[in-house]
Amino acid sequence: VPAAPPLAPLGCDDPEAEAAAEFAVNYINGHSHHGYKFALNRVDNVRVVSQGLNNDIMFLELDLLETTCHILSPTPLANCTVRSLTQHAVEGDCDVKLQKLDGKLSVLASKCHSHADSSEDLLQICPDCPLLASLNNTEVLATVTAALNHHNSKTTDPYLRLLEIGRARIQYHPVHSVSVEFAVAATNCSAGEAKENAGVCQLLPEDQSNFGFCTASRLIRPSEDLSVDCQLYGHQPGVTYSQPGQDTS
Amino acid sequence: PVAKRAVAEAAQHDKVPRPVGFVPPPPPCPGKIRHFRI
To answer: A46 with A60: CB under 8 angstroms?
Structure first.
């Protein structure tokens, strides 16, 4: 009896590959503790190794793009906007190993690394676009500090503490400006109490945690100006934040 | 004597005739780009 023809290799746009890629992207975002949510841009490659009846190992190479949603945001990934090229896009490359057993997917291993679009490429399409800056740049740190102090001095909401700086961009002409995005958390103080002694203000315990996100833009030249917008997400059961360096990769 | 046909001629004859307008299927990978390429 002629052997059954070999199965055609799974295509990267086949529904089965897309379903596995979507499962992998949700896993990656669900296990990330810092930065932003990533969305699927392209399935670069897929390889299936059969382990037996209804038991396959799938190797995916995924090309992701950073969205504007911080990882602590409750916004569903489908509603998160992919950062545009002129916003200095960030790409993620992930290799994911999954098992499909009796139709059920599980991730066995994943490895990702991200990198920003090259400044040269961005300046080619947008000569005046601000470029991503290092998160420990002194102007960036000064802008985040000024923005958070400005918010805490004006708000009747709880006093907010900085969790992490998500991204920062600096523009030098035609004006000199710094724009920053950072994650914050509510503390057990009101802003008024914090004026007395902010040192006693602690982050709320896990079962009451309230994370948020701020964007700020500081004009340095031709004149000083600062605009800040902070939004708290409200308590999200089970959502925690681990200080950088504490979480497992 | 066996006359060896020219390879080109043989290849021509052996080539499976393709219907007019035949478009080869796209390669299975990489897949489509959903947003843009960096």
So the answer is: yes
Tell me if B32 and A42 make a contact (CB, 8 A cut-off): yes
Tokens describing residue A235: 């308590």
Three-state secondary-structure class, residue A40: strand
- Interface contact flag, B35 A91, Cβ < 8 Å: no
What is the phi/psi pair of residue A154, to 5°?
A: -105, -15
Are B35 and A82 spatial neighbours (Cβ–Cβ below 8 Å)? yes
Listed by number, the residues of chain B in 15-34 with a beta carbon closer than 8 Å to a beta carbon of chain A are 28-34
B30 has which bridge partners? Answer: none
Nearest to A45 among B30, B33, B36 (CB): B30
Structure tokens at A238: 């089970």
Q: Is the pLDDT of residue B9 over 60?
A: no
Can you tell me the distance from the alpha carbon of A230 to that of A249, in angstroms, rounded to the nearest whole number?
A: 29
Please tell me which residue of chain B has the smallest CA distance to A117.
B38
Answer yes or no: are the C-beta atoms of A72 and A89 closer than 8 Å: no
pLDDT at B26: 72
CB A177 within 8 A of CB A130: yes
- Both tokens of A114, joined, read 């991200």
What integer best gives the mean pLDDT of chain A? 94
